[in-house]
């Protein structure tokens, strides 16, 4: 799709024409590079607090209650991400101005997200950590929603599979880079602040040259309560393929997040590692996971475009991911955990290679791509809200074995749900 083409608003009685803005000639295929690199920056910004630094900060503030506090902070933060992501997608669909439809949300979201991370670094108690993480989730999800909406804006269907595979690589390489950066710094504010700052700067810098699509007509219809609630839903009866693709993403994201949300505490409690050793071991686990993804995702993204098939790769990925989580659940040593992460990464690599392309292929309309992708992104955010709520009870009742095997069950459900998508092979 030509990124310099202005986007007209739907023809309704409630619209008026605004001044057209020319975006000029875009750099050749630059968005195919810029979007994955921006996602890389997003991941570097998000992963340190999500996986390591919040957990360690809470142990500093309340050692005995850290596990329950982590569930509360991650759960409430994920609720804010659930709200922010689809709203930002909906608002970006309606945004006019010379910067374009998506970039204003990326820039402002990056700034707000980092402000929340600063709050976490200086928080004197658990309540302020919760506030900081909620702010960070709102801001970073503003940016993520607009970034993902750029995929159908900028990339044609014939290249979406390979671009989606590079996006998935960027997300997971970002996790490795983030955890590597964290363990380079001594515990304290610098460890919390510097890695995320690097990610935010990268995200903004690479997306700035993109010639964003421009809406040349301003939507005048009021954004009332009905429109607001519509930001969070689509009609699965009218768009069943999007509904099944949404469920597939939800199930496999649950599988993925089960393996990372309590990884720091799992290593500390199962294998007796210290708080100082934990960042390095988490880095090694995330690295093993990323190696599995790197071995699989680029090839399968290309192959998916070549064969024009998506569902087969999702089914294969689900089976491999289930094996990986089972190995982690039964691991007798840290080395076995690393092996399980490697296998899990290979499975998730097969999934990430095609799942974003699958979502983009079943969108009902380009006119509402930002809103619909925002709703689809709920399938990634919702597990981050549900797992922290459910995990403490699961761990108390069944141990980490129950937590990880529960995640494996969702992998099986993901394989089942993708078979119901009809529009995509």
Automatic annotation (TrEMBL):
UniProt-annotated location(s): Cell membrane
Low complexity: bias regions: 10-23
Predominant subcellular localization, coarse grouping: membrane
Keyword Cell cycle: no
Keywords: Membrane, Transmembrane, Transmembrane helix
Keyword field contains Oxidoreductase: no
Membrane topology: Multi-pass membrane protein
Pfam families for this protein: MFS_2
UniProt region (Disordered), positions on chain: 1-23
Record domain Major facilitator superfamily (MFS) profile: where: 29-425
Residue stretches spanning the membrane: 33-54, 66-84, 105-124, 130-151, 163-186, 192-210, 246-268, 280-300, 312-331, 401-421
GO molecular function list: transmembrane transporter activity
Matches recorded under InterPro entries: MFS_dom (IPR020846), MFS_trans_sf (IPR036259)
Official protein name in the record: Na+/melibiose symporter
Organism, as annotated: Lentzea albida
